[in-house]
């Protein structure tokens, strides 16, 4: 499903006109921030089309819009994302922690559709997590693309382990329900676990993490992401339907026209320029 273009919200602050891409519904005391796409370090133009993604959330824009807020006591972050860069998401977590410390604001996370992989960091850093009945959350080990010699690859491995043990697992453990051990969290991460917001499902997230279940069904657009191909256990309802090729009808080729042309050329002594 094609995502609609995000409208830029203009708000006059400190005598300047700010163009907002992700912030909406700004009031004196609250702000809504929408993470509706893949999380990236930098929203670079596509190699083939030369166009930037209309849905990607990049760290520079995140930082700019977050730092423009003044007097906000409630910061609501709405998530419908398949994940993205673990480094970009980690940077955003640090920004949110600093924002909360400097302003005293309360951060509320709402899982509108899908909150997967690195996007879960943004949910876990919030003071409270709210999930709709038809929403999902997925956790797994951090991954990256790597190229280089053994030393360079080992550096990437060490970095991923540091992210997992120093940031990701502690965040999950902090939001875990009583009785869910660190060992259990690690097991869920290793297995790429998909949780549901529906209390009737076996993998209901409320059985593992402290969340507020919203009984309403959120009417939300399909998550704009190409990351599903990197995941092992994507639920069937999230998979894109395979397009079946229409069978090509068998039909006899009519060579008579070509034979007439060839005969004409031979009769005239060959093709002329």
What does the radius of gyration come to?
Answer: 26 Å
CATH class: Alpha Beta
Count the beta strands: 12
In round numbers, the mean pLDDT is: 80
The CATH architecture assignment turns out to be Alpha-Beta Complex
Order of helices and strands: EEEEEEHEHEHEEHHEEH
End-to-end CA span: 52 Å
Structural class: alpha/beta
Please tell me the total number of domains.
1
Q: Predict the CATH topology.
A: 2-enoyl-CoA Hydratase, Chain A, domain 1
Proportion in β-strands: 15-25%
> Considering the protein shown, what is the CATH homologous superfamily?
2-enoyl-CoA Hydratase, Chain A, domain 1
Number of helices: 6
**Unreliable runs:** 1-17
| Largest sheet descriptor | 8 strands, mixed
3D shape: globular
Helix content: 25-40%
Please describe the topology of this protein:
Layout: E1 9-13, E2 16-20, E3 23-24, E4 30-35, E5 39-40, E6 57-58, H1 59-67, E7 74-81, H2 86-103, E8 106-116, H3 119-124, E9 128-132, E10 136-139, H4 150-175, H5 182-190, E11 193-196, E12 212-214, H6 256-268
Parallel strand pairs: 4-7, 5-6, 7-8, 8-9, 8-10, 9-12
Antiparallel strand pairs: 1-2, 3-4, 10-11
Helix pairs in contact: 1-2
């Amino acid at each position: 499903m094609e995502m609609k273009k995000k409208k830029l919200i203009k708000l006059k602050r400190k005598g300047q006109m700010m163009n907002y891409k992700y912030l909406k519904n700004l009031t004196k005391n609250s702000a809504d921030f929408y993470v509706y796409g893949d999380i990236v370090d930098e929203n670079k133009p596509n190699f083939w089309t030369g166009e930037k993604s209309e849905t990607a959330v990049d760290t520079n824009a995140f930082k700019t819009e977050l730092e423009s807020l003044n007097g906000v006591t409630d910061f609501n972050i709405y998530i419908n994302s398949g994940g993205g860069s673990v480094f970009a998401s980690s940077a955003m977590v640090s920004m949110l922690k600093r924002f909360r410390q400097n302003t005293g604001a309360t951060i509320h996370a709402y899982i509108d559709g899908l909150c997967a992989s690195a996007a879960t960091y943004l949910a876990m850093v919030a003071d409270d997590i709210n999930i709709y009945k038809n929403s999902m959350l997925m956790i797994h080990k951090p991954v990256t693309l790597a190229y280089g010699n053994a030393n360079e690859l080992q550096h990437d491995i060490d970095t991923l382990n540091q992210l997992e043990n120093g940031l990701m697992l502690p965040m999950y453990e902090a939001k875990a329900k009583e009785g869910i051990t660190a060992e259990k969290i690690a097991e869920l991460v290793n297995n790429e676990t998909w949780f549901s917001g529906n209390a009737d499902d076996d993998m209901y997230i409320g059985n593992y993490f402290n969340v507020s279940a919203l009984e309403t069904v959120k009417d939300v657009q399909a998550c704009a992401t190409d990351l599903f191909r990197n995941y092992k256990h994507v639920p069937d309802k999230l998979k894109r339907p395979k397009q079946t090729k229409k069978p090509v009808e068998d039909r006899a080729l009519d060579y008579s026209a070509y034979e007439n042309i060839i005969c004409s050329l031979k009769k005239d002594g060959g093709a002329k320029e």
